[in-house]
Known about the structure:
Helix content is about 40%, strand content about 20%. With about 190 residues, it is an alpha/beta fold. The strands form two sheets. The chain has a six-stranded mixed β-sheet with strand order 1-8-7-4-5-6. The chain has a two-stranded antiparallel sheet with strand order 2-3. β2 (about 60) and β3 form a beta hairpin.
Amino acid sequence: MNERQKLLKNIGITVAVFIFAFFSYQFLIRKGAFDTLVTESAPDEEIRNIKESQFDAKFVNEDNQEEKLSDYLGKPIVVNVWASWCKPCRAEMPEFEKVYKEEKDVVFLFINQTDGKSETKDTAKEFIANEKLDIPIKFDINNEMKYKFIVKALPTTYFIDKKGNVQGEAAGIITEKTLKEQIEEIK
């Protein structure tokens, strides 16, 4: 076998491995294999309290009015940090919308990571409109949520009880079933 044939063979094997990995990942997402990323509820002494400065994290709503996480204290809160370019974020949004419409006693904060470069208010709004999603979005234009909550991956979802304690956290896509289970933990 000459050098060219060896190169073509290696390229073919590499492409086949990538295709296999991609479809395996898609299959595992649909089966909920990554739902284990959600932390279990901790005993009271181990619950992660949100620092006061974290509740001061500011973001803006669709009307450019400034809001803070502390504006929502006293109710269970689901904070979903996302971006429109993030495929797992896009994939979980329809399930989040469905649960948002069902859970009237829970505050949902869909906080877009708006950096002004890879993500803008316009790209986020365009995604919501194109997908025909009916959810209120907020914009983390100064990266306060990102830095105060140390968001390392998108999507990331926090489940905060009425007292301001983080009862669960998920880095990565979650299913409707897991979302509902975690909401029960913060009610």
